[in-house]
Every structure is written in C-alpha cells, then in structure tokens.
Amino acid sequence: MSKLALLGGQPVRTTPFPAYVTAGAEEKEAAALVIDSGVLSRYLGCWHEQFYGGTEVQALEQEWAAYYGVKHAIAVNSCTSGLICALGAIGLSPGDEVIVTPWSMSISATGPLFYGGIPVFADLEPDYFCLSPASVEERISPRTKAIVVVDIFGQPYDAEAINAIARKHGIPVIEDCAQAPGVRLNGRYAGTLGDVGVFSLNYHKHIHCGEGGVIVTDSDSLAERLQLIRNHAEAVVAGKGTPDLTNMLGYNFRMTELDAALTRCQLKKLAPLLEIRQRNVAYLENGLKEIPCLTIPAVRLGAEHAYYVHACRYDAEEAGITSRRFVEAVKAELPTFHLREKEGTKLGAGYVQPLYLLPMFQQRIAIGNQGWPFTLTSRTYARGLCPVCEDLYEHSVITHEFMLPSMDKSDMDDVVKAFHKVWENRDELR
C-alpha cells in the first residue's frame, strides 16, 4: 500500500487545526455597550453634524489615524468600498487608465470600471510578487490616471521605485493594504506609503470585525471627497458647499457602530498577533528549509512581512512533479481549520488566476451588455500579458495559512511532517 494518503495511505493528521479567533471578552463588552446605548448607527445622508457617523466610528477613525501616523482615517464597510471611494476621490473619469495588479482579490483590478476607467495590468516582481516597477513604467500612457498597488501576501510594495514613477507622471498611488496591516517599509507603515491607503477588516484578515475597512490619507481634499462618496455625496454637496461635483455620486459605504467598536478592540491586538504570525513563519521555515523544491519567501530590504499567507516558490523540475500534484498530495495529509471546514485544507498552488483572464476581461463585458467601458480603449487582455504572473500561477508558487496565530508548535510539526512525507515519497506521484 502507498504511504501517501492521496493514494490510500494514512494521513499525517485528521484532527482539525484550531480556529483563528481574535474576538474575546473585550469585544463582547464593547458590543454590549453599543447595544445598550440603543445607537447601532448614527449617519445621516445629508449635510448635518451626523454626516460623519456616530461616537464609535469617529473614535475608531481617530485611533486608527494615530496608530498609523496619518492625518485622516475614514471608516467604511469593506476594503472593496474603500477602493471604490479612493478611485472616485482622485477624479477618475471614463476612458482614464489605471495601472493594476493581475494577482489579488478581484476588486484591486476591477475598481476602475465603476467609474468607466480602464484597468491596465502590469506584471509582477518574481521574488516579492508585488507590481514590478519596470512593468508599471512600461504600461504608463498619457491616459494613465493612477496606480493601484497591492501589498500582496503581506509584503509592502516597492514604494521608492513606484512612487518615483508616479511623481514623474503626476499621478497618485492608491495602496491596497488589505493583507499587510501593521508592518513597515523603511520605518513607514504599509498603507501610508502612497497617496491613499485602504485596509480590510474582512473575517479572514489579521484583525477584523466581520466585514469592514478603513481608508487613510494625509490629503485634506482627498479625505473630504472620500467621506462624501462614502455617504451619499449627491445629497450632501449643496449643503456642504462642495464646488467640484466630479464623482459626487455617493454610496452607502458606512460602517456601523458595532463594527467600529469591535475594530477598536481589534486594533489593540494587531501588533501581538503579527508577532506570533511572524514567529510561526520562522518556525515553519526552519522545518521546511531542507525540502529542495521549496524556496521560502523573500522579504524586501527594509521591509517587515505580515504573512497574510506564506507563499513559497516551487521548483517543479527539482521535484519531478507539478506544483498542483505536490499540493494535492500534501492536502490529503492534513485537515481543515475548525470553523472553516467548508473551505478545505488551507494550502494551494498558484494563488488566484491572473485577473485579466476573468470572463469580464476576456469577453469585454462589464457595465451593461454593450462592452462599456472597454469600448473606450484598444487595450487587450490576452493570455501572455503578464508572463511572470502566469508562471507563478501555473507552476511556481505554493501558498498556505499554517502560520496563523492559533497554530502551536505541535500543529506546525504536523504540517512539516506532511511536506516531508510527500517529498520523500514523491516518486509515487509520477
């Protein structure tokens, strides 16, 4: 009988890994206080003292701004909402181009479409997986309005190089920091490296309130526009006396008092949770370093890494089997996480498919059924557009979440055993 669980052998472990739960007594107390107050939200969609939301929302914004050392923090109901706000606030118009990444959650690339903007995909750095400055520069055109960078997997983007490109062309940088809260690049927090930064409080992020987000900026004018787009700008601008009506068609992107109260508690836990995550990564990497087909993630000079996921380079030639076959075998040796059972074992090959291969881009259908706004551009989205990203997705990256702070050394030992077991018995998979 085969030794590998995938082929009928006994798995390394069947007991689920412990759930990653960050909420506790503090959050329960904070939620109870909000409920007892009778005020679950305090926004009015008109120019009024309650336009800015309630006590908890405003307290969170002040605390978040102080933590990250920025002038303004604007709470929203998701990072997705925050990115849409940011793209509207910079004045994006139909036909404008925005440089985006092909490797992230979809909104990092599709956000420009909400304003008729055209996503232009730049390729990735092969070692750090963030946008390649050289590829960004190559994709710039007279129609480029902004660059949306992503601190992918918890790695801050190359701020020095990309910000220099942005300054050269007079365009802003919007930083999607959903995966890298609380880490720094050369002493500055990720999320504050560009003109606007957007954080996520979704349930599987480092800290969370279920669903939520926070936008940060040092620009007074951008902050005002972000607040307006968040809360029914079209109904507010007259009373507020806002002269520039560009993209002042607002949304309801408002955060509730409950979410804000929970996030205030969570923010206090961010630093210790990051420390545990980083310590766990070091322990795992020590156990995996002798597997020749794996290369541990590189960390940019001067950067800290938040390790939203642990992304290892994979050498298929060294292993003699594809990354997907290797991952399939390791997954069979390991269980799911408690409370996330339906998501399967948190290990994958390739992360997400390059976003320009989504049906939206391949069929050029987004707003309505006539191809708008793709009718405004000659840009194409054929396979081969970002060869580094495609190679990473198809062949050479493995990601996992076995460094979550809920994992102890015995849990991680099982992970290391599973990887070594598959490596040592890989001939069975050929």
UniProtKB/TrEMBL annotation:
InterPro entries given in the database record: DegT/StrS_aminotransferase, PyrdxlP-dep_Trfase, PyrdxlP-dep_Trfase_major, PyrdxlP-dep_Trfase_small
UniProt superkingdom: Bacteria
Residues annotated as the enzyme's active site: 205 (proton acceptor)
Modified residues (N6-(pyridoxal phosphate)lysine): 205
This protein's UniProt keywords: Pyridoxal phosphate
The family this protein is said to belong to: Belongs to the DegT/DnrJ/EryC1 family.
Name listed for the protein in its UniProt record: Putative PLP-dependent enzyme possibly involved in cell wall biogenesis
